[in-house]
Design a protein that fits this description.
Helix 1 (2-23) runs antiparallel to helix 2 (33-147). The protein is mostly helical. It is rod-shaped and about 185 Å long. The longest helix has 115 residues, at 33-147. The chain is built from 3 helices and no strands. It has a domain at 1-23 and 42-53.
Length: 169
């Protein structure tokens, strides 16, 4: 931007100098053909400098406008990125909270499963003990019934004898 201004100032200074030279008093005697051509060429140069200056001013204004639009768009994009970053941070925080909750629930479930395993083991042990006791009773019953029939008859006889003596009395 500073370069454009110094260039413009240089062009204006050159234009002013050319104008002064063209207006300088010409000798009073006859104007030569070469002097008229020089003045025409100087006027053409001044016109070209003026058109160049107008073109540069127009293009410089367009560049300034484009630079301003780019700056505005960059500001908007920055705001959009910040908004998205905030939303993303919020979602990450929410997911971390849910993950912590889920982790706690899984730990609690693991503790419950461990407790259930302990209880099932205790139940299994109790069932094994009951099974062993039932097998022992079954073995005793079979031995008492099959092994000593005499003892069983004697016991039956004793019971009958008691019943008979109790009814006779």
């Amino acid at each position: 931007m500073e370069m454009g201004r110094s260039y413009r100032s240089g062009l204006i200074a050159t234009s002013v100098m050319a104008l002064l030279l063209s207006l300088a008093p010409v000798r009073a005697h006859a104007v030569s053909k070469e002097t008229i051509q020089m003045q025409t060429q100087i006027q053409q140069l001044l016109d070209m400098v003026q058109r160049l200056q107008t073109t540069l001013d127009t293009k410089f204004a367009v560049l300034q406008n484009l630079a301003q639009q780019t700056a505005d768009q960059a500001t908007q994009m920055n705001a959009t990125v910040n908004t998205l970053q905030q939303k993303l941070n919020t979602q990450v925080e929410n997911l971390n909270g849910k993950l912590d909750t889920s982790s706690g629930q899984v730990q609690s479930m693991n503790d419950s499963v461990d407790e259930l395993k302990t209880r099932v083991s205790a139940l299994q042990k109790t069932l094994q003990d009951l099974h062993a006791t039932a097998a022992e009773f079954s073995a005793r019953y079979r031995t008492g019934r099959n092994g000593s029939r005499r003892g069983a008859r004697t016991r039956r006889d004793e019971l009958r004898t008691r019943d008979e003596s109790g009814s006779a009395a």
